[in-house]
Design goal:
39% of the residues lie in helices and 19% in strands. By secondary structure, the protein is α/β, with parallel strands linked by helices. It has a 6-stranded mixed β-sheet with strand order 8-7-4-5-6-14, with helices on both faces.
């Protein structure tokens, strides 16, 4: 597929096409200019120009020519092969949670070079959160000994619906301080690098599809159970976001029309019954104030009240997952987020609810498994988003990719 002009500047289009060339090099190892043109749909002259830019930046090297016969059996001079110098550039991943900012810098082959975590009220302090992300990026690039000019792209996950047409947060109720901001423009100004944005569940799904429990899955659902409830969808290796980026907002499906008012403005949403803060509130009378982490810890230790609250919540979630199974027929549902740390306390009743409420064929087809990446799914997915975002706004992970860490998380 050729480049799609989506209303951005020519320079922005060139940056996106440069990433497509980098993707082709990463996927193939050593490849000719002609093969890059064929795999990306770009013209040979465009590829040659982009490769020249990457060579000048030290990101691409010329290797040996193909031995013996010319490439493709066409005769003539064998083409020169190009290789990506994965040590010459870097990617940035940023995970904005409701109460934290996580950031990591990796090489182009996804070796994590440095990583940091800061507690902050992201919902109410958008500008401060953006400034924090930019500060962390600078510190991490310094720690990884990467020049700022070699930051190729940044991927960002944000805990709210993202309007794919405008790039704005789709709900001021969920993220009240972000409504008037364009997060991509704000971060690109701070980082001087291309920024690619998606909601946290989609980014977590991409992380699991690329590096975790979803490698090789055709239809993947990543269920994020935390302060909010969301689902990320990956179909044939590509995130499915819907027409405007709202796909996967399972936290706002109706459970009880007379139920509590949700932060989205509706009444009786799934999230009002099963999100972490709502579950902690159920135990306030018997256990006093609890954090979600404390709630999960009590359940793991066998506390009867905490176990009951989580099991009941998982059964309610399981009905929504059963509907997803009937509608999407996934081959895997990956359960992540803070509440997933409770393990089988959550997974067992969730699986039972799916078996009970999904049609048998859909229930038999799906595996329901815990996240392999844990609380780093969104962060590592943000790195994958940075590395694979193409000009059509869809990410194509490399099957079988593995994440490695050479820097320490803090």
């Amino acid at each position: 597929m050729g480049p799609v002009r989506t209303g951005g500047s020519l320079e922005s289009l060139r940056e996106r096409n440069r990433l497509r060339v980098v993707d082709a090099l990463r996927a193939s190892g050593a490849v000719s200019r002609a093969d890059i043109a064929r795999s990306t749909g770009l013209s040979r002259s465009t590829v040659s120009s982009l490769v020249a830019d990457l060579q000048a930046a030290g990101l691409v090297r010329e290797g040996e020519q193909l031995d013996g016969v010319a490439h493709g059996g066409q005769g003539g001079r064998p083409p020169v092969l190009l290789t990506l110098d994965t040590a010459a550039g870097a990617l940035l991943g940023v995970d904005f949670g409701h109460d934290h900012v996580r950031a990591a810098v990796s090489s182009l082959s996804y070796d994590v070079l440095a990583e940091q975590h800061v507690e902050i009220d992201v919902d109410a302090s958008a500008h401060e959160a953006l400034d924090t992300a930019a500060r962390l990026a600078g510190e991490l690039l310094d720690e990884a000994s990467v020049a700022s000019g070699h930051l190729l792209a940044a991927g960002v996950g944000l805990p709210g619906p993202i309007d794919r047409e405008s790039g704005l947060v789709g709900s001021q109720q969920i993220l009240p301080s972000w409504g008037s901001l364009n997060p991509v423009a704000e971060l690109e100004r701070r980082l001087s690098a291309p920024v690619h944005l998606d909601n946290d569940a989609n980014v977590g799904a991409l992380g699991e599809a690329t590096f975790g429990a979803g490698r090789g899955a055709r239809v993947l659902v990543y269920l994020r159970l935390s302060a909010g409830i969301g689902a990320g969808l990956v179909v044939d290796g590509r995130p499915f976001r819907g027409a405007r980026g709202i796909a996967g907002e399972v936290g706002h499906v109706l459970v009880d029309p007379q139920g509590p008012i949700c932060r989205c403005g509706n009444r009786g949403c799934l999230e009002t019954f099963v999100a972490g803060p709502a579950l902690c509130e159920l135990l306030r009378r018997s256990h006093g104030p609890l954090s979600v982490r404390q709630l999960v810890g009590l359940a793991i230790e066998g506390d009867a009240g905490a176990t009951r609250v989580l099991a009941d919540a998982a059964g309610i979630v399981g009905r929504a997952v059963a509907d997803l199974c009937n509608t999407l027929n996934p081959d895997v549902v990956i359960v992540g987020g803070d509440l997933s740390a409770a393990g089988d306390v959550v997974l067992a009743p969730l699986r039972e609810a799916v078996r009970r409420f999904a049609i048998p064929a859909a229930a038999d087809a799906v595996r329901i498994v815990p996240s392999e990446l844990g609380d780093r799914a969104e962060l590592l997915g943000a790195l994958a988003l940075a590395g694979h975002e193409a000009d059509d706004g869809l990410s194509l992970p490399i099957p079988g990719s593995r994440i490695t860490t050479t820097g320490g998380a803090r």
